[in-house]
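Input sequence (261 aa), recorded before submission:
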Amino acid sequence: MCCYRPRPGTARRPREDRDADADHRWPVRRGNPSSRLGGSARRHSRRRTDHSTRGAPICRRMSAGIRRGLASLSALSVGAPAWRTVCMRSRLHLPRPGEMSVAQRRVYDDVLRTRGNAHGPFLAWLLNPKLAEPAQRLGAFCRYDSSLSLQESELLILHVAAHFKCGAEQEIHEPIAKHAGLSEGALATIRAREVPQLPTERLRLLAEVAGELMATSHLSEASYRRATDQLGEESLVEVVAIIGYYALVAFTLNAFDMRME
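Predicted structure, token format:
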């Protein structure tokens, strides 16, 4: 049943006539489709838009999070000195992600992929990507791919940091070492450059090897024999590589006064 009732004295126009001049009722304004609608229609359009987002709260939350993240990045970049970044501060003019060359960005992305952040010497090394790429790959091996456990490698790293008095290296690695199982007492003892009380013979041997290398730059014959007997030659080579790599890290952090933000 048709619900349309014309007012008395009026007749409804044929449909084809209404369609013929439909495009002339409201002027079309490019870039603002809603301007084609009348007041009532615009209000209904807004209500339909509101209803369309009502069923997607996750999208709204994600959009809000993205907006907050962009605002935070803007706040960090506006007024910040050129040599400051989100994670590290240095006397060097460290490269920002948005200003990196293609080669720098490739190495930077590898660092983030393997470590989750760019804490440490990487931003300094990125001033020369040809240095940064092999250096960060060596570091990834020393930290993640050697035969040593995380607790053992962190023990070596903290001995290097204490020897070179590298506060940034300690700040980065002490929480990792604690999570890996080293006690607060052991961390404090290593920080004071003293011999820590460690629970296993293998950890104690690693601490002795690191201490002797730091103090004399050599391993005595007796220390070498003990190390190869308990660790094997392959693992001992890895131990020396970890100590050497993190000595490079400590020199970089100390020379350029690099600190966590």
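Checked by second reader. The first strand starts at residue 88 and ends at 89.
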